[in-house]
Queue: 3 jobs
Job 1
Amino acid sequence: MTMHTELWFPTVIWSSVVHSIDNNSLKKYAYERQKADKGRKISNYLGWQSNDILAGECPAIDMMVGNLNKEIEELRIPVGLPSLQIQNIWININPVGAYNQLHNHMGSVLSGVYYVEARDNAGNIQFDRGDNADYHLPMNPEKSTYFSVTRATYKAKTSALYIFPSWLKHSVQANQSGVDRISISFNYGEKT
């Protein structure tokens, strides 16, 4: 007997290294914004997170959003999503020891992060399974596979872009690089 395999409820994480973004301008703007914006606390511990950045406030971010809009349009079609639009975008500056607690992005469909500055040991992003498989899977599987793992880790590195479903719980490890980890996070939702 041959069993037919079907994948239901797969979790997709898209990744890329982007070379067309001006990281120097973004880094300069991040520190200027930090001086002028008290910021907010959501999932960040010891780090700073800006309030939402509006269109027209930073040409480098506007250009980045233009590129993201094209990527999101290409990603949404194969997975059957309707047209999406950016809901919000913000900056994160995480000094040594700063991290982001486990969270998801309520009210949006796709979320992502772009690393403006991330050196070795800057703290990787980790995605956790949300289906309680850890209560059912063997403690010591014969080998780790996409089916059997309960966490996926992606390296924080300069110019890396990760896009993922907004409901996927994720955290970011503590920065131990000796240099600020600077990232830009964003959410996309259904067009209104």
Note: Residues 21 and 63 are 8 Å apart (CA to CA).
Job 2
Amino acid sequence: MKKEIEQYLKVLIGLVLFDSGNASIQWFAFGRRRLVPARSNEVKEVGEYALHLACAWRIRTISSILVGSYDLYSLAGDPYQEVDKIDVTEPAYTESRLAERLTTLFRDRENAPLIVQKVVADTVGSVRLSLSGGYLLEVFPDNSLDTEYWRFFIPNSKDPHFVVTSQGVEVG
């Protein structure tokens, strides 16, 4: 699985990580910004590539965690007030510490974008994307359930998705 993941994700090397959000799962957008059709005759901006995570993740530097998946369950501005359940649809998601921290990160890096420099995976589906400026995006499955951990794909395309599950890699 390690080699398959690294081989498939190497297309990210040299591309910018420019956005993230939550639509029941956390998503990250890489590469060129593209406008694609959305529901109700609207358009939405997506990346050239998308990484959708259904497992734990974090963005960190060598000495600190800037934001992580569990931040979804803390309120912006008051990180010690946890919420049992948060509606990940608007506006509740935007009121989470996770959204606050990601917004700040991408705003602070507008003039020095986060560029993928290296991809390292392991044999259980974890992946580490080394980013410019000493940042790391780390994805780590954290359960033993028979489930999908994450997927990588080209948004609004009929190309197959690269899916990492507890049972291995699926392309389809």
Note: The chain has a mean pLDDT of 91.
Job 3
Amino acid sequence: MSRHETTSETPTTEAARGGSGQMFDAIAERYDLLNRIISLGVDQGWRRKTVDALELQPGHRVLDIATGTGDLALAVLGRTPDVRVVGLDPSPKMLEVAERKLAARGVGERAELVLGEAESLPFPDGHFDGVTVAFGIRNVPDRPRALAEMARVVRPGGRVAILELSEPRRGAMGALARFHIHTVVPRIGALLSGSREYRYLEQSIARFPPPEEFVDMMKAAGLVVLDATPLTFGVACLFVATTREGS
């Protein structure tokens, strides 16, 4: 497994921005435990659906943007032999956790970890067969630019699968999910980690655009959207897209 940096040192002012690499550095060691508790474990099933959407074949190369502690990268590597994954994230501490997990699972030789930003991917055009993002696109300040970069680095006919939390807007289960997001998530986060980080989580979910608006953003970036599937009463949504053959 190789790991290298592609960005210069982030200014200290970045630490104040919610969703920055510095914010996730602060919770990296507790991130997996918090995710399991807050999502009641269903996030693992969501990741499996995301990997399914890639339609992987042996030898494929996958870019996992906002790879964090590597859960989705591990799911990709465990699905199909000889698949290789590059995991990119702006948080050095999250990448340290990912590196340990990949090594412990014995798949580190098929993985590369890169410090970088979604809006400026350090890869050539059409380099990957698939691109994934799980719970990371809402943290990207310039989403249209990041989506255009995804469209650029995936080969024609390749797949882009984006898994993101969303705020259900209708129905009794939607009301329950909103209560969980706005009340339970910040309180559990404050008890187990830091209130600032998990208050940001609540606010970032609420600010993320509705699925239909995000689909329009994907199309404007040059992606051909195949599906947008709500998961678990709309608590999350899986967006699947491709690029045109010959484009």
Note: Strands lie at 2-5, 61-65, 84-89, 111-115, 128-134, 154-165, 224-231, 236-242.
